Amino acid sequence: MSPSAIAVIALAVGYLFGSIPFGMILTRLAGTQDLRSIGSGSIGATNVLRTGRKSLAVGTLLGDMLKGTAAVLVAGLLWGPPAAMTAALGAMLGHLFPVWLKFRGGKGVATYIGVLLGLFWQAALAFCAVWLIVAFATRYSSLSGLVASLISPLLLWWLGHPQLAGLFAVLTLLLWLKHHENIRRLLAGTESKIGKKAPRVDENTMAGHNGGPPLGNT
């Protein structure tokens, strides 16, 4: 196959992996309330935690993370490193814009970590370390992800991986764009802190999204 054909296939494979909505699947199997009707309406682990089921939140976090890792590893094994990087982009796009949920997905922090783990695991450990430090200091989950994602491409560049740095600069931009509401609330001082119960999503707010769920946290 030509390089362009491989790139298209790798992007599609990554997208399919990334679009698996583990939060929705696990909460429905467990018989909890509709995940999109509580807290932020997110399909990610942070909002799953608001169901009171820590085990489901952990399962969602691992699922959303490892689907990114799996996409990278499968594409890399079949078609090589360039395809792995393309699959990473596809996995992020799949999580952010899943076709199964009318292109309204999560915000990508867990999947970002997952593709980073598959491509350069040392940088994934650094991401988690930064996340934990910021979360401990501020109690803001969203801010922790934003700061860690901003540092990741800079770290990759500093370590001598300009192609990976370029890829993760794009992924960081996507992640920040999907966090625009969180950024607005952070600036206004109204963002929910870790451990603080978030209000139920208003049905009128959901209706304002053309019947789809509001954007998620992770």
Tell me the β content: under 5%
Distance between the termini: 35 Å
Helix count? Answer: 11
> How much is the radius of gyration in Å?
17 Å
Low-confidence stretches: 200-217
Indicate the percent of residues in helices: 55-70%
Number of domains: 1
Overall mean confidence score, pLDDT:
86
Strands, total number: 0
Summary tags:
mainly alpha, disordered C terminus
List the helices and strands and how they pair.
Layout: H1 3-18, H2 22-30, H3 45-48, H4 54-79, H5 81-96, H6 109-119, H7 121-138, H8 141-158, H9 162-178, H10 180-188, H11 203-207
Helix pairs in contact: 1-4, 1-5, 2-4, 4-5, 4-6, 5-6, 5-9, 6-7, 6-9, 7-8, 8-9
Q: How does this model look, in words?
A:
The protein is mainly alpha-helical and 218 residues long. It has one domain. Helix content is 68%, strand content 0%. The chain has helices at 3-18, 22-30, 45-48, 54-79, 81-96, 109-119, 121-138, 141-158, 162-178, 180-188, 203-207. Helix 2 (22-30) packs across helix 4 (54-79), helix 6 packs antiparallel against helix 7 and helix 8 runs antiparallel to helix 9 (162-178). It is globular.
